[in-house]
Amino acid sequence: MAELENPSVMSKLIAFLSSLLERVAESNDLTRRVATQSQRVSVFHGLSRPTITIQSYLERIFKYANCSPSCFVVAYVYLDRFTHRQPSLPINSFNVHRLLITSVMVAAKFLDDLYYNNAYYAKVGGISTKEMNFLELDFLFGLGFELNVTPNTFNAYFSYLQKEITLLQPLSLVVVPSSRSLITFNDDEASHQKQQQQQLAV
């Protein structure tokens, strides 16, 4: 999309995505503390919270990955799919950074003709190549290898992001006990509106 080529649009997109992911992570951290149900620990789960902010980390990925801007929208789609397929692994402050680097790398490999290898992404993400390989494999299985993003789905997610960026208002999330996702979109427009209203409150 031509709009994504604009540097100011990308900086706003990165700022909004990082804000959204930060809110989701904080919400799920709080839910985990008060919930009786336990959350599974996975290869994405770090021993401690990274010191780098989500926004700085996303900016670092954008600066050094040199992938197409569309990869960030597709990475967002992948994160949403992952949280729906893996409800016992919600995004939290211990796994969000690893999920981000992995989702962007997988999106770049799927979308772009030219992309860096896992060793390069590992350096960008501040992890080992061996860990990057494990993360990629676990992420792909977590997605059920469902990597294709239709133009309708891409446009729905991008339109949502554009709308939220334009409003320039922070997003308030309503935690739905049965689903800890970012936002859900289907190719069916009617269900899109209903699900968006149920999961998000602005």
TrEMBL record:
CDD domains listed in its UniProt record: CYCLIN_AtCycU-like (cd20604)
GO MF term set: protein kinase binding
Entry keyword set: Cell cycle, Cell division, Cyclin
GO biological process, one term: cell division
Coiled-coil annotated spans: none
Any Pfam family the entry gives: Cyclin
Stretch forming the signal peptide: none
Entry keyword annotation includes Cell division: yes
PANTHER family: CYCLIN-U4-1, PTHR15615
Family statement: Belongs to the cyclin family.
Record-given protein name: Cyclin
Species this chain originates from: Arabidopsis suecica (Swedish thale-cress)
